[in-house]
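Fill in residues.
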């Protein structure tokens, strides 16, 4: 058993506890509070007032799948730009557990990330969550059951296929391609269910099978969209087909924040400091998270990166200077992304019974004067400068 003593514990669910002790045993948090009794056989680590948060979570990355570092002119493994509908693609076949991003990102306090295909395709395939531990193979770190379907609207699929003179070349075409794929998948799912109920043989289709849990509302969709009108298209199509979905990036979400709040749309917001590299992100503003919070939208924050994920806490600090509350800042890096990826029963807060995924800082976690001093994953230090 390990006792992290004399710390400032950011529990998320029970506020910030000064002079706290956190007990960890067998990879699980056993207790947290000011009056926790420390067993005689425990290893005691006096943190001398340092901050302890749940391990940070980035719910939208392309971690270890885009060929980082990439040779000049080289391609990546995250975009199968051969067909706008590639629902059967699985990021686990590209995720490299020996990628260079693991060490620097966990040294910034991250313990869980979610990686997914890129946004070149209207339907790009499934992503998966994983712990930032060392692993011999991907099976050592992924969290089965967290697969979700990546979709994309806006300029990326247009750019990928418009240049090939094939659909989609327009936003209209993107919407039509998405609807057609979902319509066909829904019909396939109904035919499959009917055949199974009647005991009749049914010829399965590998590509269609991947979308069956999507149209049945059993698999969440992660829909890339920056512009407000694209966000509304994501909502419109999702409501038409009864999808369980999140909006990814939500760059112009502030323009329709009231609608997002009314419809209780979960938004994964970021990157927050994008340069105007394409027209649909020209209105990117660091004020977006604060405005969405003020409207009552549940947000998570993302760097949408690989190695650069480590700089997300600094961006969160800047967002706090422009209206994001401290409370929401912590939630948007912990419990909210845990909810997005369906793991809030295990991670995202410092509570007894949850995974012992913790980050220790020598100052406020979102200050650029602060350094992460240690990162614990499943009760083991995978980074430690204490």
């Amino acid at each position: 058993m390990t006792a992290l003593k004399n710390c400032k514990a950011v529990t998320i669910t029970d506020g910030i506890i000064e002079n706290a002790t956190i007990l960890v045993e067998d990879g699980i948090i056993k207790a947290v509070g000011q009056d926790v009794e420390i067993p005689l056989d425990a290893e005691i680590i006096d943190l001398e007032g340092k901050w302890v948060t749940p391990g940070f979570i980035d719910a939208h990355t392309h971690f270890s799948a885009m060929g980082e570092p990439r040779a000049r002119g080289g391609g990546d493994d995250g975009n199968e730009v051969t067909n706008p509908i590639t629902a059967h693609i699985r990021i686990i076949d590209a995720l490299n557990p020996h990628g260079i991003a693991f060490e620097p990102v966990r040294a910034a306090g991250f313990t869980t990330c979610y990686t997914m295909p890129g946004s070149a395709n209207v339907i790009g395939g499934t992503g998966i969550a994983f712990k930032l531990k060392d692993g011999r193979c991907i099976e050592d770190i992924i969290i089965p059951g967290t697969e979700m379907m990546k979709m994309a609207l806006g300029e990326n699929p247009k750019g990928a296929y418009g240049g090939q003179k094939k659909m989609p070349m327009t936003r209209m075409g993107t919407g039509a391609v998405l609807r057609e794929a979902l319509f066909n998948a829904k019909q396939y799912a109904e035919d499959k269910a009917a055949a199974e109920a009647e005991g009749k043989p049914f010829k399965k289709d590998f590509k269609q099978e991947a979308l069956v849990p999507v149209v049945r509302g059993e698999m969440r969709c992660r829909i890339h969209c920056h512009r407000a009108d694209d966000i509304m298209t994501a909502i419109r199509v999702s409501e038409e087909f009864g999808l369980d979905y999140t909006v990814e990036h939500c760059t112009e979400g502030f323009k329709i924040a009231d609608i997002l709040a009314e419809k209780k749309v979960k938004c994964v917001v970021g990157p927050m400091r994008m340069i105007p590299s394409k027209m649909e992100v020209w209105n990117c503003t660091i004020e977006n998270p604060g405005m969405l919070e003020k409207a009552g939208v549940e947000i998570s924050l993302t760097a949408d990166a690989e190695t650069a994920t480590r700089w997300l806490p600094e961006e969160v600090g800047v967002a706090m200077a422009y209206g994001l509350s401290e409370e929401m800042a912590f939630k948007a890096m912990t419990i909210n992304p845990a909810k997005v990826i369906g793991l809030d029963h295990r991670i995202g807060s410092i509570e007894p019974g949850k995974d012992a995924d913790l980050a220790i800082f020598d100052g406020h976690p979102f200050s650029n004067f602060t350094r992460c001093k240690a990162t614990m994953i499943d009760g083991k230090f995978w980074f430690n400068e204490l």
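The mean pLDDT is 96.
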